[in-house]
Structure formats: C-alpha cells, structure tokens
Design brief:
Layout (H helix, E strand, L loop, with lengths): L2 E2 L7 H12 L44 E5 L5 E2 L23 E3 L21 E6 L5 E6 L12 E3 L5 E3 L3 E6 L5 E3 L1 E5 L5 E6 L2 E6 L4 E4 L20 E3 L5 E6 L11 E6 L5 E5 L4 E7 L5 E7 L41 E6 L5 E3 L3 E5 L2 E5 L5 E4 L5 E4 L5 E7 L4 E6 L7 E6 L2 E8 L5 E2 L8 E5 L4 E5 L4 E5 L4 E6 L2 E6 L2 E6 L2 E2 L4 E2 L7 E3 L2 E4 L2 E4 L4 E5 L6 E2 L5 E3 L16 E3 L6
Parallel strand pairs: 1-31
Antiparallel strand pairs: 2-3, 2-30, 4-14, 5-6, 6-9, 7-8, 9-10, 11-12, 12-13, 13-14, 15-16, 16-17, 17-18, 19-20, 20-21, 21-22, 23-24, 24-25, 25-26, 27-28, 28-29, 29-30, 32-33, 33-34, 35-36, 36-37, 37-38, 37-39, 40-41, 41-42, 42-43, 44-45, 45-46
C-alpha cells in the first residue's frame, strides 16, 4: 500500500524543503529554513526521497502545454474545454460559550508593527534560529550561553548527520529586542505569528502577542508527551493553517476512570474550547487538514507488529531539550517499528468521527481514500465517487481541497507513470511522464501554481485555469505568490506571470538558501517583491529570516566553515533599496 506523507509535514519550512527534494531528483535546492548559512545544498536529508526528474526553456513567453481532456457535465455528457470546479462551501465553526480559565494578563507597553531595527536579539553566543514572526516582532532561538564543556570557549559544531557537538544549547523566546526569556521549548505559532506556544517550567503556555494574555494549557490538562517522528512537527499542539484555531491533547493513565484521550479544539479569537474523545484504541496524533475544517486523527487499533501490545509508530521523546536539534533534518529508523495507525476524521461543522481507511487528503466536503485495488475515491460526501480507477494505480502529487482538483501520477500507464489532473467528473492528461514513486504528497498552503518536474520536461500548472505552461527543461521554480512565481533559469532569476517571463532581475549566487515571507522572496542576492513584481534590492550578506515587509535578520558574525553555528546577537536590518 502506498504511503502518504502529505499530512505528516508539520513544519512548513521543512515541508517546503522536503517536497522540493521529492519533486526533483536532478537538481538540488536549498532549504527555506535557513538555520545555518550556506549549509550543504544537497545533503540536508539523510534519506532523500527524489523520485521525479527536474530539469527546463528560454522563450520570454511560455506556451501552454498540450493537454488531452475528458469531462462530463451534470447529465453525464462528454464536454471539452478547461472549465472550473466550483469550490466547496466553507463551514464556519459555531464556538461554544465555554470561556477558558487559568488565564493571566500581562502588560505590554507597546505593540510594534515593525521589528526593532538594529536592536540586539539574544546574546553574543552560538545561535540556531528556530522561528521568526512574519512581522519580525519576535524570534525563537537556541543559544549556547554557558561554557558547559569547560573548554574555555563558546562553540557548537554540526556533525555530518546533523548532530550537535560542543556547548549545550538552550531555548529562548525574544519579543521585540533583548536577551529574551529562557524557555524549555518553542512549540509553534499561528501563521500570522500572533499566537505563540511554548513550554516553560514544564507547562504549556499560549501567548497572544497582540492582546497580551498568557494561557496555561497545562493547567487545563494538556498532554506534553511527544514522539520521535521525523518531520511531523510537535505532537503536543497544532495550529490550524488558516490561523483560526489550535488543538491540544489531554491524557489520563487512570484505568479506574475508564479514561480516554481527548482532543481539545480552541478558537483563537474567542478562547472557546470544544472537547472530543478520541474513541477506542491507543491515540497517537491529531492535526488539521489544509482548510482547517477537518481534524485528522491517528489511532492504534491493531497489533500490526505482533508484539502483543499496542505501540505508537515512533518511540516516545525522552530528550530534555528536543527543540534544540541540529539544522540538518534526518530520518531515523528503528529495528522494531511500532504499530500502523488507523485514521479517524471529524468535521468542525458536526464533530462526528468517521473511520477513513486508506486516507490520502481532504477534498471538498469529503476526503480522498485509496482502496485495496489502489483506486482513488472521494468519501465523506453525500454521494461518494471515483477519482481514478484501479488501472491508473494513482499516486497523488498534490490535492487542492477547495478547488477539488488533484494532480496524480498513473503508475499503471503502459509507457511509465503519467501525470493527470482529476476532479469530480473531470480528467485531463498533462502529457508529462515521471519516474515511479510510492508516496502521496500535499504541497503546503494550497498554492495556485504547482510546478511539475517530469523526466524530460518542466511545466507550471495553474489550478485556477487548469492550464499547464511549458517551461525550459532545466528551469526551477524558487517561489510563488498568488499567480506569480520566480524561476531560476541557469544562473539568472525571472518573474513568471500567466505564462510570461519578465526580463531577468539579475544573476544568482550559488549555494544560498531561499527565504520567503508572503510576497517578499530572497533568492540570494536578489530580494524581490512578487506582489509588485519588482526588485527591492540586492543582499550580499547571509540572511537567516525575512519579514513580510522585507526586513532582514542577520547574525553578528558567521564562521568560516559551514559546520559551525553563527554568532549572536541577531539583528533586523532594513531592506536594501535599488538605486
């Protein structure tokens, strides 16, 4: 049975990095989570899942690639033309009237709308950036401020597999400026950066950085157990990708109370909470789908590894400071794996749990599943329907639940896997052939544009118009925002808009990470505003993070070797301006 990795990617920077490697095997690209400077561009995953060719065209205008299309109307008649599947109706949660307790107010003298430029963030010590808010108001970082190995110097080295050596790193959260607050772990934040979750003195805290409140979720029974699953993000708490909600977990080991694990969904604006039992079985994880309208849970219901008890698929996390791991992501494996989880889903609109065997991703008002014959079907709707048949034996490259479209690769095609765009009553061949692969993928953020890297061709698929635009074979899509994208062609950068390439912005530097925050994209040394399709300026120094207004986060100094961490303190610098 094919594996599904789309749901598992919790951290968006790592998700972007992993998908880029999975979509292209002929070209390596740097991670957007620039925790070290140059790093090793092709060595950041210990287990690289490269299964599609990636390679690109020089024409200033890209022409739509030819497609073969078969569609049916409401009466089942065959019709032609791109058409458009209307988006599903979004269901808005009706919050309960329960108001959380255990909330204390903190006083903030001011709430800056821009980062404090040039102000020091953190101390003068080896630094590993964990996160930065889109507006630059706060950063989460790890620093080695104490000479814990007593060698007379503060230093942290990165090993070939991402392991850390040297002085002990500790987690800090810095608001506005200064040395920051010592924390146990940075857990995550809402997409806009307003809400921040941390663990401090063994308690899970939720901060509203605008309203100034701090809520102790541990006092409300939050389960702080984590696992060692790679690239899944924290088990403890998950933020809705749309920024409306979060979920956390409750757990009890008291058998006398017939205790069950519970999932708590919290409305971020009102603070109202809804509590749901996970049901029978050993509860493992829960997360939101891309729309935030479904909660997808994983529960162990069968002893699939035959060791006579139920286990999580990955071991329990026992590290004292799991937040300060190395910047090179690695994929750990165990000699004795745990049990395989079953999937249960509930909608925020009705909170009804439904078993979803073979779950792939949400899709419209329902979800895509794969049956035992490898056919893809859409279930959870009033009238379930087939998305692709067993002969196609499809793997999903990307699914868009709002547009109700999926890019699939038919493994059963006679000449090799071929890409198709499918939806309700819709199927179009994209005339692109790829290498075989076994996993399903879901790109983060439900983008308008989906780059397709085939064996001997590269294309840009516009999901709104359902047109695949041919690019040059060696082109690489560095970033997209709305209907615009930045394309690397050889060593130059171009803006792409509806099939048309702009004049080049200039030459690119090799071996530098790409950073994006909203419409602002840094493809070193070029800082581009994709909203206006203009060059903001050139940046020669190494940059760790970017704000939505183009401010740049830089370290005090960078080492001469890529295996040593940069030195703090960090500082926000204003964006460069083109003369």
């Amino acid at each position: 049975m094919p594996a599904n990795v789309g749901w598992t990617i919790g951290d968006h920077a790592q998700a972007s990095y992993a998908v880029r490697h999975m979509l292209g095997s002929r070209r390596c690209s740097s991670s957007r989570s620039a925790l070290l400077w140059p790093l090793f561009r092709c060595a950041s995953l210990s287990l690289t899942l490269s299964f599609l060719g990636c390679v690109g065209s020089t024409a200033a205008q890209a022409k739509p690639a030819a497609t073969k299309e078969t569609r049916t109307d409401a009466r089942g008649r065959h019709i032609r033309g791109p058409g458009a599947v209307p988006p599903s109706k979004t269901v808005t949660q009706k919050p309960t009237t329960t108001t959380p307790k255990n909330t204390r107010q903190t006083v903030q003298q001011s709430i800056p709308s821009q980062p404090a430029l040039f102000a020091p963030l953190g101390a003068a010590a080896p630094t590993l950036l964990r996160a930065a808010s889109p507006d630059g108001r706060w950063v989460a970082l790890c620093q080695a401020r104490v000479d814990s190995n007593a060698d007379g110097a503060l230093s942290v080295e990165v090993g070939p597999h991402g392991e850390l050596f040297g002085d002990h790193l500790q987690s800090y959260w810095v608001y506005d400026h200064g040395t920051g607050l010592l924390i146990d772990q940075f857990v995550g934040s809402s997409p806009d950066g307003r809400y921040v979750a941390t663990i401090e003195k063994g308690g899970l805290l939720l901060r509203d950085t605008t309203g100034g409140t701090v809520t102790n979720l541990s006092e409300r029974g939050a389960d702080l157990r984590n696992d060692q699953a790679p690239l899944l993000g924290p088990r403890i708490l998950r933020f809705d990708p749309t920024g409306r909600r979060l979920l956390y977990l409750r757990h009890s080991d008291n058998p006398a109370a017939n205790a069950e694990d519970h999932i708590v969904v919290r409305d971020l604006s009102s603070g109202a909470e809804r509590d749901f039992s996970s049901g029978e079985g050993l509860f493992w994880r829960a997360d939101f789908d891309a729309t935030g309208e479904f909660v997808v849970t994983r529960v162990i219901t069968a002893d699939t590894n035959k060791n006579k008890h139920l286990d999580w698929p990955y071991p329990l996390q026992t590290e004292s400071n799991p937040g300060c791991t190395g910047p090179l992501p690695s994929f750990a494996v165990w000699e004795y794996p745990g049990d395989q989880p079953a999937v249960r889903i509930f909608r925020m609109s009705d909170s009804k749990f439904t078993d979803a065997p073979g779950f792939v991703s949400s899709f419209g008002a329902g979800w895509i599943t794969r049956d035992d014959q490898h056919a893809l079907n859409v279930n959870g709707v009033q009238t379930p329907f087939a998305l692709s048949n067993a002969d196609c034996d499809a793997r999903v490259l990307h699914s868009d639940p709002l547009r109700q479209l999926a890019v699939v690769a038919c493994m059963g095609a006679k000449g090799g896997p071929e890409l198709e765009l499918v939806g309700p009553g819709y199927r179009a061949a994209l005339n692109l052939q790829v290498s075989s692969f076994e996993v399903d993928i879901e790109l983060p953020g439900m983008p308008f544009l989906v780059p397709l890297y085939a064996k001997k061709a590269t294309s840009m698929l516009d999901l709104d118009t359902r047109v695949a635009y041919a690019l040059e074979e060696s082109d690489w899509v560095e970033a997209s925002y709305g209907k615009r994208a930045l394309i690397r062609r050889n060593d130059a950068l171009y803006a792409w808009d509806n099939g048309i390439l702009s004049p080049t912005f200039g030459k690119l530097l090799p071996m530098r990470p790409v950073l994006q925050q909203g419409a602002m994209v840094l493809v070193p040394p070029l800082l581009v505003d994709l909203e206006t399709e203009s060059l903001v300026g050139q940046v020669e120094d190494h940059v760790l993070a970017l704000t939505e207004h183009g401010a740049l986060l830089e370290a005090a100094s960078y080492p001469t070797t890529p295996t040593t961490l940069p030195q703090g303190p960090l500082r926000w610098l204003p964006p460069p301006r083109t003369p």
